[in-house]
């Protein structure tokens, strides 16, 4: 095994630690928003900063973060999850952390920016080889899967975007 082949093999596995940390972080934050006390606090906070109705948006944010966390961790629907993370964190920066500067200890956007960077990495690079997506995709393609059916039915060009979201 040469150094070049080892580097290529390791590069194929490099998304796993990123998915594990980003996924578990988002899952933790989503679940804490969905717990009764967390939901009440988040809803009140959202109402106070003008995101109304607070309870509805707190539920939507909690579920989005939790589901994005699970999908990211497992490595399926990774790009959809990454976009969800980008949206929630951009909103957090715009509404809460942006005016406080970069420093996380002062309530700034340092941590949010790290989450955004991780989500961008997965959006651009996909879930990697060690993922549910990598296990399921070849089987779906052999059977034609939903994408095969869409291709045979001559659907709109919009449906061609679906593989990019995998």
UniProtKB/TrEMBL annotation:
Membrane topology category: Multi-pass membrane protein
Subcellular location as annotated: Cell membrane
Keyword vocabulary terms for this entry: Cell membrane, Membrane, Transmembrane, Transmembrane helix
InterPro entries per the UniProt record, alphabetical: DoxX (IPR032808), DoxX-like_oxidoreductase (IPR051907)
Residue ranges of the TM segments: 66-93, 113-136
Top-level taxon in the UniProt lineage: Bacteria
Keyword DNA-binding included in the entry's annotation: no
Primary location class: membrane
Keyword Signal in record: no
Record-stated family: Belongs to the DoxX family.
Protein name: DoxX family protein
Organism: Archangium minus
């Amino acid at each position: 095994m040469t150094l070049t082949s080892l580097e290529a093999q390791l590069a194929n596995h490099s998304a796993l630690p990123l998915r594990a940390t980003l996924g578990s972080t988002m899952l933790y934050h989503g679940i804490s928003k969905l717990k009764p006390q967390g939901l009440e606090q988040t809803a009140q906070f959202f109402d106070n900063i003008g995101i109304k109705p607070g309870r509805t948006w707190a539920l939507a944010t909690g579920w989005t973060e939790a589901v994005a966390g699970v999908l990211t961790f497992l490595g399926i629907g990774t790009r959809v999850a990454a976009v969800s993370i980008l949206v929630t964190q951009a909103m957090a920066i715009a509404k809460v952390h942006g005016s406080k500067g970069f420093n996380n200890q002062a309530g700034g956007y340092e941590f949010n920016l790290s989450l955004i960077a991780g989500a961008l990495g997965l959006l651009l690079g996909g879930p990697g080889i060690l993922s549910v997506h990598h296990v399921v995709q070849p089987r779906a393609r052999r059977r034609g899967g939903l994408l095969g059916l869409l291709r045979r039915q001559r659907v709109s060009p919009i449906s061609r975007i679906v593989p990019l979201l995998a």
